[in-house]
Amino acid sequence: PDHTRRAPPGPSEGGSNTDDDETTGDEPDFELSLFSSALVDYDYIMRLLAKYTDTHFEKVKITKEQLLDVLAGSVDLMNEREYLKAFIEQELTQGSGMSEQEIRQRYVAFKDKRFNQQIATLANDYGIDAAALERFVGETVKLRRIDEETLRELLDHIDGWKQRKAAKEGLLARLAPLFDLLTGGNAIEGLNAYVK
User: Fold this and answer.
1) Under the phi-then-psi rule, with left for phi > 0, alpha for psi from -120 to 50, and beta for the rest, what region is 8?
2) In whole angstroms, what is the distance from residue 41 CA to residue 29 CA?
3) Kind and range of the H or E element at 42?
């Protein structure tokens, strides 16, 4: 998804650079603006994660629980929520000193790896070639519609039309979150016929 909208800069990006009481006064405002903002988007989360991994994290006072709370309340990040949550839980350590750019790069790599693992799991569960399933997902996202013929070919090895129908519904139900993620929440034509 193309995340081009940017949230307004937090108060911590301005204000005094001194180490006196003015600086400590900035921190609560920064936290309040982050956790109460209705404009939490992808870029904002990346900046927030950089704050979380800041080597001076004891001054920032952002906890993992607060990060997850922000994600839970973000409508803009609904499709990325589970990936980001897993990324925070598995990849980030408070005070590890990662830059925003490093976090962005690591998150993209994490998302690619997780996507490939999900495809491999689904392919194994339904007896489908993983490369063929990945191509099906890619074409579906590109065309924004389910290719019935390709879907039929993927599951043609399953005996019995009832079993194939159940497999189609099960496979597409499990692919639906991936489609949401890859299309930014845009509808896939024909998906509703299988996923209620």
Assistant:
1) beta
2) 19
3) helix 42-52
- Tokens for 168, please give them: 């189609």
Q: pTM here?
A: 0.66
The two structure tokens encoding residue 159:
């005996």
| DSSP state letter for 145 | B
Q: What is the mean pLDDT of each run of 10 residues along the chain (196 residues)?
A: 41 41 41 47 82 68 75 70 86 82 92 92 96 95 93 94 93 91 84 81
- Supply the pLDDT for residue 74: 67
DSSP state of 9: P
66-99 core/surface letters (b: 16 or more CB in 10 A; e: else) = ebeebbeebebbebbbebbeebbeebbeeeeebe
End-to-end CA distance of the chain: 24
Sequence-separated contacts (24+) of 12-20 with Cβ below 8 Å: 12/51
Question: Residue 33 and residue 159: Cα distance in Å, rounded?
Answer: 57
Which of helix, strand or coil describes residue 189?
Answer: strand
Which helix (H) or strand (E) covers residue 46, if one does? Answer: helix 42-52
Written as one string, the DSSP assignment of 59-85 is HH---HHHHHHHHHT-STTTTTHHHHH
Residue 89: CA count within 13 A, CB half-sphere: 9
